[in-house]
Amino acid sequence: MFVRRLGDVTADDNCSTVALHGFTASGSAFGELAGLLQRPVIAPDLPGHGQSEAVADLTDALIAVAEVLRAVEAPRMLIGYSMGGRLALNVALDHPQLVDRLVLVSTGSGIDDDTLRSARRDSDGELADRLETMSIEDFLDEWLNNPIVALPPSMSDARVHADRAMRSANQPTRLAAALRSLGQGCAPPLSERLGELSMPTLLVSGAKDAKYTEAMAHMATLIPIATHVVIEDAPHNVVAVSPAELTTAIHLWEAQLAG
């Protein structure tokens, strides 16, 4: 995978930070957060996004993320948002020795019901088929109108335009491949495995994202060392809309861990 190094790469940090973005974004989505965290952040373009080629399936994506983690010094903090959060959760469960702290933002543990998961896989496949026939701009016009990912009117024009430019750099055929291999319908349900997480885990959701706030509140009851923070006035895309509040949540959590 293509790896971006964001923030102050010369800053001293006692924990390597790796961040995984959401669907239609790229590693550069964490640029503002990296600056606020005041530390270097390793942010790969996930398969099928940015400058990274697509992969055949979820297993290949998890192998690629694990390789990124192995390439940085321990201890390691892994941050994942939405689709990137699903990957982060899978990696933390399968390779706990590579993750010392886990931060999941607007992330669920998968679709438990087999019928619903199959239906989601079918709908993701249909969307992927359409994606391959559309321009990236036409797709984004449609995708960003979805209430769960739409940016609020309160965001400045400059930030909205920067977000759109980042997403516009993606290729529709690669995004379609990513949807088929990394979509929610392809992801295994992990709720029964959450008790296996051995590392401290921070769960962050937006107060305006009722679905994920409820899901993450339940996840927090199943994870042995979990803290759930709800960001006021934030939607699903906490990373883009509320990076300062997300930074505060991470800093406070780290301070609590340090005692």
Quickly count the domains.
1
What is the fold-level CATH name, i.e. the topology?
Rossmann fold
Q: Quote the average pLDDT.
A: 96
Low-confidence stretches: none
Distance between the termini: 36 Å
Which CATH top level class fits? Alpha Beta
Strand tally is 7
Overall SS class: alpha/beta
Question: How large is the count of helical segments?
Answer: 10
What overall form do the CA principal axes indicate?
A: globular
Strand content: 5-15%
From N to C, what is the helix and strand string?
Answer: EEHEHEHEHHHHEHEHH
Helix proportion: 40-55%
User: Radius of gyration, rounded?
Assistant: 17 Å
The CATH architecture designation is 3-Layer(aba) Sandwich
CATH superfamily: Alpha/Beta hydrolase fold, catalytic domain
What about the largest sheet? 7 strands, mixed
Order of strands, main sheet, comes to 1-3-2-4-5-6-7
Give the key terms.
about 260 residues, alpha/beta, Rossmann fold, 7-stranded mixed sheet, 10 helices, 7 strands, about 45% helix, globular
Strand and helix layout:
Blueprint: E1 3-6, E2 16-20, H1 31-37, E3 41-44, H2 58-70, E4 76-81, H3 83-94, E5 101-105, H4 114-131, H5 136-143, H6 157-168, H7 172-182, E6 201-206, H8 210-222, E7 226-231, H9 238-241, H10 243-258
Parallel strand pairs: 2-3, 2-4, 4-5, 5-6, 6-7
Antiparallel strand pairs: 1-3
Helix pairs in contact: 1-10, 2-3, 4-7
How would you describe this protein?
This protein is α/β, with parallel strands linked by helices and 259 residues long. The chain has one domain: Rossmann fold, CATH 3.40.50. It has helices at residues 31-37, 58-70, 83-94, 114-131, 136-143, 157-168, 172-182, 210-222, 238-241, 243-258, and strands at residues 3-6, 16-20, 41-44, 76-81, 101-105, 201-206, 226-231. Strands 1-3-2-4-5-6-7 form a 7-stranded mixed sheet, sandwiched between helices. Helix 4 packs antiparallel against helix 7 (172-182). The longest helix has 18 residues, at 114-131. The mean pLDDT is 96.
